[in-house]
Structures are given as structure tokens and as C-alpha cells.
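Vacuolar iron transporter: structure, please.
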Amino acid sequence: MSSVDVLVLGFANLVADGISMGFGDYLSSSTEKEMASKERDVTQWEVDNHGLSQITNLVKRYQELGMDPQDANTVVEIFSKYKNIMVDEKMMGQKGIMPPDQEEKPWKSGLVTFTSFLVFGCAPLLSFIILIPFTNNDTIKFIGACILSVLALTLLGLAKAKISGGSYTLSALMTVSNGVIAAAVAYAIGWSLRNLAGLEEP
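Here you go.
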């Protein structure tokens, strides 16, 4: 396969995968937000129509977590004066559901995922573009693609550590290792299928 074929198929696949990933993230975020909104409506109804039992359940919940009975009653009594806080606390404490964030925009999550996928995913293809004026050797371009891929994965791991506050070295190693394993598995599957089908390189 020529470098041009690699670039054309690579970018086409990259954009298609990016759209799929971005749209999937959008659907996931929007569905999660819709479910949280519906659950909040249900919880709001429960608090409005069965306030006493909800207060009792919340007191028991805090006691199970180790809170003193008197303190639990005091806390819940304060919460009961503020219905919105009471509803949110019941959702998180008893149902394990975070209240819906009205400022969250699912389309933004999808766009960020799509953009990130394109930025980091194009790293291997850049090697073929950058090296075009210097060499026609596909092996050299492939090695360059591997190097750029490792650099991109390293940056991704460092960014992850920056956000999570974890170890930079460990995060980078884990991210690169994950990429190497995934690439090796993909190559092994492709090689196996090619030989199984009896295909030969041109």
C-alpha cells in the first residue's frame, strides 16, 4: 500500500471514527442528563407527597453512615427547610444519582471528544506528510509514525495525570502501554486474517 493510500484511508477512517466517538459521547451525556432530570422529578414528587417518610429514610441513611442520631436529625431538619437541597441530597444519598447539571451541554462533550480524537489520532499520519519531501521509503515513514504515536500517547498520559493529580511517569507509561498493546493486537489480527485468506502483498 502506497503512502497516498495510507493517508487517504487513514484520514477517512479517522474522521469516521471521530464522528462515531463524538456522537456516542453526545448520546451518552444527553441520555444521562435526561435520566437524571426524570429521576429528579420523581424524587421531587416523593418529597412533596411523602415528606415525613423521606425525612425518616434520610435520617436512617445518615445513621448508617456513622452519624450520631441527634446530629442526623438536626441535619435532615435543616435540609427539610430547603426542598431543592432535600431533593438533591436524597438523589445522591439514597439513589446514588447526581442531580442534573443545567449548565452541562451534551453537544459540547461530543465536540470535545471529536476534536480530541482527530488531534491525537492524526499523529501517525503526520509522519507520512512531513517525510514526503525527504524520502519515499515507506519503512522510514512507518517508523516515524510509530514515534509520533508514542509522543502523542505520552502527551495524552501527561494531560491525564495533570487533570487527575496522579503520577506523570506512571500515567504516561500506562497510556503508551495501552496504545502499544492495542496496536500489536490490531496488527496480529490483520496479519492472521491476511494469511488465513491467502492474500499476498503486491
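Notes: The chain has eight helices and no strands.
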